[in-house]
Amino acid sequence: MKGNHRVKEPKIPCNPPVCRSYRAVGKPGKLDGDLSKPFWQTGEWMDDFHDIEGDSFPRPWKKTRVKVLWDEEAIYVGAELQDNTIWATVMGRDEVIFQDNDFEIFLAPQDSSHRYYELEMNAANTMWDLLMERPQRDCVRRIIGWDVHGLESAVKIDGELNNPNADNKSWSLEVKIPWFSLRECGQDKCYPEKFAPDVGEIWRMTFSRVEWEVDIVDGKYVKRTDPATGECLPEHNWLWAPTGIYDAHVPEMWGYLIFTEAGEDYPLPDADEAKLVLRRLYYREHAYCCEHGEFTPDAAALLGEEAEKWGVKAYVTPSMFEGMLTWNGTVYHINQDGFVWAGDWFAQQ
Fold first, then answer.
1. Phi, psi for 10 (deg, rounded to 5)
2. Which residues pair with 239 in a beta bridge?
3. Residue 167: CB partners within 8 Å, gap ≥ 6?
4. Three-state SS string across the chain, please?
């Protein structure tokens, strides 16, 4: 493990944006990618996207707008992507969509950084849906065989797919994600009594847009290469909630998704500041282990005065650690996999 800095600490403040998702009025009918239909008019456009590493990097030069609605059956995502280069090459379900320009949805029904969902789609309406048991920084494989039962999606193109000579302006999409395939990871019960969220329930969520620079060669879009190496230039990653590092799989930096009725508001979780202290311990324990080959029980060495302020304790074994603090009468824990939980079973230690 020494020297392996796969767990990186975000270098921007954790200031997650908020999406207040209103209950849908009526049904969208057959999806066609058209966001001008009456169904979408009750939704609010969310904030603009940022570079994945934050606003110290250039802001995206192509606008992306997103709306989110929900009802007892599903959550609905509508997005509009400004683009003058509309192309797609990946045509098979569950293939690696981000090799094309794409739009990505990340949904976490619990605020532990574990057991969340990712969906990717391109302008050809090719879909990749997958389940993540925990973030990829914690050495986990994507569960690609998992599928959303009843998933529906559609794309509408203002222009023409794979035609550089067309008057290309944008592509828009609609996605319907039924609750059945999302809900079990968000509840303690193996068989939830109901699948739709309660009004006021809060999840974590973000959206990502992958954008490759392209040239036109022989009437086709071709990814731009570095003249010195011949390799493709790296893609641009634009997120609704930037993570501060070159990795979208940082659920603790994602935005809040609040399921609400129109006109109603709900407070954000008040324990998140305490959880972020434990997150910093997690980042720095891994950095320490990479340098020294072991974790350390010295929380003050990693967190400074913050360790005393919050009463942070750290316990280690040769291959694991657990951090804990007590906030507002509840004990919060984090382990070496970044899993966060609340409980009083360790409160007397």
1. -60, 140
2. 50, 208
3. 159
4. CCCCCCCCCCCCCCCCCEEEEEECCCCCCCCCCCCCCHHHHHCCCCCCCEECCCCCCCCCCCCEEEEEEECCCEEEEEEEEECCCCCCCCCCCCCCHHHCCEEEEEEECCCCCCCEEEEEECCCCCEEEEEECCCHHHCCCCECCCCCCCCEEEEEEECCCCCCCCCCCEEEEEEEEECHHHHHHHCCCCCCCCCCCCCCCEEEEEEEEEECCEEEECCEEEECECCCCCCECCCEEEECCCCCCCCCCCHHHCEEEEEECCCCCCCCCCCHHHHHHHHHHHHHHHHHHHHHCCCCCCHHHHHCHHHHHHCCEEEECCCCEEEEEEECCEEEEEECCCCEEECCCCCCC
Could you tell me the two tokens for 58? 């250039």
Per-residue pLDDT of the chain (349 residues; tens, 9 = 90+): 454 567 899 989 999 999 999 999 999 999 999 999 999 999 999 999 999 999 999 999 999 999 999 999 999 999 999 999 999 999 999 999 999 999 999 999 877 788 899 999 999 999 999 999 888 888 777 888 889 999 999 999 999 999 999 999 999 999 999 998 887 665 544 555 678 899 999 999 999 999 999 999 999 999 999 999 999 999 999 999 999 999 999 999 999 999 998 778 899 988 999 999 999 999 999 999 999 999 999 999 999 999 999 999 999 998 999 999 999 999 999 999 999 999 854 433 3
End-to-end CA distance of the chain: 29
